[in-house]
Amino acid sequence: MDLDPLVTYRWMRLTRTLDDAIRTLWLTGQGVGGAVDQRGHEAVSVGPALCLEPDDVVAPMHRDLGAYLVRGMTPHELLAHQLGRADGPSRGRDANIHGCGDLDRNIIGFVSHLPQSLPVAVGAAMAFRLRREPRVAMTWTGDGGSITGLYAESLNLAALDNAPVVIVVENNQYAYSTPVGRHSANPDIAARSRALGVHSVDVDGNDVEALHQASRAAVNRARNGGGPTVIVAETMRMLGHAVHDGFEYVPDELLEHWHERDPLATFERRLDQRGVDVDARRTIDREVAAEVEAALTSAKASPWPDPATVTDGVWA
Prior knowledge:
Elements: H1 5-27, H2 42-49, E1 57-59, H3 65-70, H4 75-82, H5 117-130, E2 137-142, H6 149-161, E3 165-171, E4 174-175, E5 178-179, H7 180-183, H8 189-195, E6 199-204, H9 208-223, E7 229-234, H10 252-259, H11 263-273, H12 278-301
Helix pairs in contact: 1-2, 1-11, 1-12, 2-9, 4-12, 5-6
């Protein structure tokens, strides 16, 4: 389906506003866990997630807050999670985006080392194919994750099995503090992925419409028996790896270059050119701000987990 411009704008604005609230919690000493910055990744998480059907499975990573929201997690739940409260998806067992899953919503919790969520998503896709279910799995990883042995093994298995999986590689220029040119002898991630037998495309990771178009084609291809696709999204994380990271290792001129390509500002300029109602967008801004503020109030008032339940859900 085509993107609804105002719906898409709302998801992107909600992602950024919620991310700002989570960062503020950590900076003011109110969060009980870590906080991972999302700024610059609003398009790469929202655009692909909007392509999926309810029965499809997603395995987002730590910089895909928009995907969690699109798939049904609420700001209250995500803020309660950051505060270690019982209302969060881990019921207080974790306090950052790690472990933030909900299988009732077909969200596989993030496995924190990249790309460890990838074989899980490939396994889900293989199950769909074996059961002849018209379902797709989608996962995300980073440029650093794409140079690991597990990435190659997962893509090889997906290609051999013709698994209906879509892999979005967020090429955000740095694997923590290591730039792409220092960790990849061949920085062409799409070419390396094609060499493993997987259909691969390059996309502007700050253009939500381009990402949606490429993701929709990949999802349709997977659902109709065409096998896996890798979408390499060229983007930039505009703050540190996490809130504790001062980001001094990134050149100012590189940040300035990407600041001009901010995904929200880019989308707004396009909507202006098309005459999409500015007042409607400002209304969305106010509604989203109020929604996040109310969620923050309710999350702070939500209960701490009962210590007597500490072993509940423990496998071994």
